[in-house]
Specification:
The chain has a single domain, classed as Lipocalin. Helix content is 11%, strand content 50%. The protein is built from two helices and ten strands; from the N terminus they run H-H-E-E-E-E-E-E-E-E-E-E. The chain has helices spanning 2-16, 22-26; strands at 43-52, 62-74, 79-86, 93-102, 107-114, 125-130, 133-142, 145-154, 160-168, 176-185. A hairpin with a 2-residue loop joins strand 7 (133-142) and strand 8 (145-154).
Length: 187
């Protein structure tokens, strides 16, 4: 009994110490190092796309097409690059996804470089994964108007994943999903 009382007292003293962080109090799950959030995406993928024909215009018509994606790690695991082919009907193109991890904030930034405008690096979305879902957001503009952008990764398995992009024209009160992708591993 004395050992239990001593352990409880020690735990209480450590928890009240200024050096004790909230992540320690919440247990191991809260101490997750988000540097490995995108490890699941390493490799080659077949990608099926659904893209809303007209964004933020009340459209319900989706354009479906296929593509590929190959992702590799960079910066000793604190970065990724993926090379993408999007077989958009009538206008196929290539694009690159670039990700960088900040260990201080435990967040990832994701940039999209579109081969149709190779000098324009889009505004990065920033976030990380919690409970198996990755959420990444940014303030941006669309057709000259301010919007919020959100990328969401979900339904992740060893051989599949789902991604969505949504725009909000009203500061995040409502969201329109305008692009969905299902990934199936090929290698």
């Amino acid at each position: 009994m004395k050992t239990l009382a001593t352990a409880l007292l020690a735990t209480s003293l450590i928890a009240s110490s200024p050096a004790f962080s909230d992540t320690t109090a919440k247990g191991t799950a809260a101490m997750t190092d988000h540097a490995h959030d995108f490890d699941f995406l390493i490799g080659k993928w077949r990608v099926h796309h659904w893209r809303l024909k007209d964004r933020l215009a009340g459209s319900t018509e989706w354009v479906e097409f296929d593509g590929t994606s190959t992702l590799w790690m960079t910066m000793d695991g604190h970065g990724t690059i993926d090379d993408n082919f999007l077989d958009l009907p009538g206008s196929p193109y290539r694009a690159v996804g670039i990700r960088g991890y900040d260990p201080k904030t435990q967040t990832w930034a994701i940039w999209w470089l579109d081969g149709r405008s190779p000098h324009d690096l889009e505004q990065p979305v920033i976030g990380n994964f919690n409970d198996g879902v990755g959420t990444f957001e940014a303030d941006d503009t669309f057709n000259g108007k301010p919007i919020k952008v959100r990328f969401t990764w979900s339904r992740i398995t060893r051989n599949s994943a789902h991604w969505e992009q949504a725009f909000s024209p009203d500061g995040g009160k409502t969201w329109e999903t305008n692009w969905r992708m299902d990934f199936v591993r090929t290698v």
